[in-house]
Every structure is written in C-alpha cells, then in structure tokens.
Amino acid sequence: MITGKKILVTGASGSVGRPIATALAADNQVWGLARYTDPDAKDRLETAGVRTIAADLAALSADDMRGLLPEVDHVLHFAIDMFDEPDFERTMRHNIEPLGLLLSRYRDVDSFLHCSSTVVYEAHPEPRAEDDPLGDFMRPVNPTYSLSKIASEAAVRSVCRLLGVPTTIARLNVPYSVDSGFPMMNLTSILAGEPIAVHPDFPDVFAPIHVYDMIRTLPALLGAASTPAAIVNWGGDEQVGLSEWCTYLGELSGREVTFLQTQQAVKGMCPDVGRLRELVGGPVCSISWRDGMRAMVEASAAASRTAVDAP
Questions:
Q1: CA 165, CA 136: separation in Å to the nearest integer?
Q2: For residues 197 and 186, is the Cβ–Cβ distance under 8 A?
C-alpha cells in the first residue's frame, strides 16, 4: 500500500477520484482538486481527511498552478470535463491543454498517473492489448470523447519525454463501486423500468473492475511510471457482457430487465489485462464482478429504505 506520501488527486469529487482520494487519505497527505459544484462532495472529502482545492484546471495558467498547487510525491490525474455537444474546441481547452501545464508544474514528482480510457482503441470484438490500433470508438455516442482521450495521451507522452517526468498512462475500462459507475447507471435504469441499450451487431463484453481493486493496483501502476510513459490497461480479470450483468442485477433486485437494440448503444470494449497482471504479480481483482454488483444492489436497497424511513 501507499503510505506516508504527499499526493494530488485531480477530479477528486468524481466517481473514481473520490473513493481513491478518500482511501489514500488514511495513510497519506492527500490534496483533492475539483471544481466542487456540489458542496456536499467537498465536505465529505474533508471529513475523510482530504485537503480540498476548489479550482478549474482549464482556468489556471502555468503561474496559477505554481502558486496554488502543493509540492507532492505523486499526481493522480482523473479530472475530465464531460459534455454532450460535439465541441472539439472546448475539449482541447478543457481536457488537453491543462495536461501539459500540469505535467510541467510537476516535472519533479516521483510519478504521474494519467487516467485514460479503453475507448481509445479501434472497435474490435476481441480483447485489446496496449499496442493494438487506436480509433474513434465512441463517435456514435459522444463524438469528442475517444478523440479527446487519444489527444490527451499524445500530450502526456510528449511532455513526459520533454521534461523527463516518470509517467503511467492507465487505460481504464469499467470502474464501479457500491454507488457509482456504469453498472450503477444500469441498476438505476432497471429500477426505474427503463430499457438497457445494447448494440445489435457487436459483442457487449467488458472487464469491470471494483474501485477497491483499483486502489490495490495503484502501487504497481505508480511503480511502473517511466520515461517514455508506460501504458497499461486498467480493468478486471473477468470478461463479462453488459446484458449478462444487467440480467444479474435484475435478478438480485427482483425486477424484469428489458433490452433495446440500437446502433447508438456503446459497443463492447474488453481490454487484455496481461500487462497489469505482470505488474501486480498475480490476479488483478480480489472482488469478483458478481460479489461487487451484489453489494451494489444491497447498498442501493438500504439507501432506498433509509430514504423511505426518513421523516
């Protein structure tokens, strides 16, 4: 585990950054940077011992970053500006340009982890390894997302080499926890009686990874940081279909699950996690997808009971 370190987590109020910042704060000095449009998110992090920094990376100059951001040993970059409209200029300003400035600010860190995504790969029915072709995977659903992730990786790789910053680019697949992630979105739809969109002509297979196992694998990912940047798929050991886990969520919650076949649905994207297993020295996951998603359903049901019982 990581202990006694100074760590900056960007995107600390997000569904991935929040639990990771909270867990690391138990044994490290952790700063959580986010816009904090939800004050409750800021309060929860501070209660857990995270030192919060309310700022928008896209609005910070290089001088701002030097003055505002603390000296740390490690940077975990999860921040991303998500929006639906196909605004490529905004994508470059908000998600690409700040990366170069952030890496320049932290040119002396022990390691810089940039959280990318497996949506950088070209659509393919077989698991994708780190050196497989890249492509515009998400265009039917979000026209800017895949291209922005590829551009982000290009920026990170260039500045990493230019400044000699030990870097890991982790291509994340489907993270989830008891209250967040793609499976949680599916559960919310199932409970609301809404259909689950699936692609009619493409496998729906992914490799979900519980946030707890993401935290377990962090030391290995940070330890792999290098110049040029190390590139590692970040997903679970088990390959499972969206329709399979949604059917399971329906069984656990006692709800009928309906599927809507549409070309606008996300295609399956399953990473090959062999490189990550080598870094970890064994299996990636300690929590199977069935156990993790069962806990998610139980937590959702408990939250619903609490809401009903509240005065």
A1: 28
A2: no
Q: DSSP readout, 200-259?
A: TTS--EE-EEEHHHHHHHHHHHHHT-BSSPEEEEE--S--EEHHHHHHHHHHHHT----E
Q: What's the rounded Cα separation, in Å, for the pair 215 and 24?
A: 8
In this prediction, residue 116 carries a pLDDT of 98
Question: 222: burial class by Cβ within 10 Å (0-12, 13-18, 19+)?
Answer: buried
CATH for 6-176+208-239+270-286, among 1.10.150.120, 3.40.190.170, 3.40.50.720, 1.10.3720.10? 3.40.50.720
pLDDT tens, position by position, 243-286: 999 999 999 999 999 999 998 888 999 999 999 999 999 999 99
The 10s digit of each residue's pLDDT in 136-145 is: 988 877 888 8
Q: How confident is the model at residue 55 (pLDDT cuts 50, 70, 90)?
A: very high
Residue 49, token pair as written in the block: 């011992």
CA atoms of 159 and 165, how far apart (whole Å): 8
Q: pLDDT digit string (tens) for 40-50? A: 999 999 999 99
Distances (CA, A) of 90 to 58, 76, 80, 86, 145: 10, 23, 12, 9, 12
What CA–CA distance (Å, rounded) separates 235 from 185?
A: 18
Largest CA distance in the chain: 59
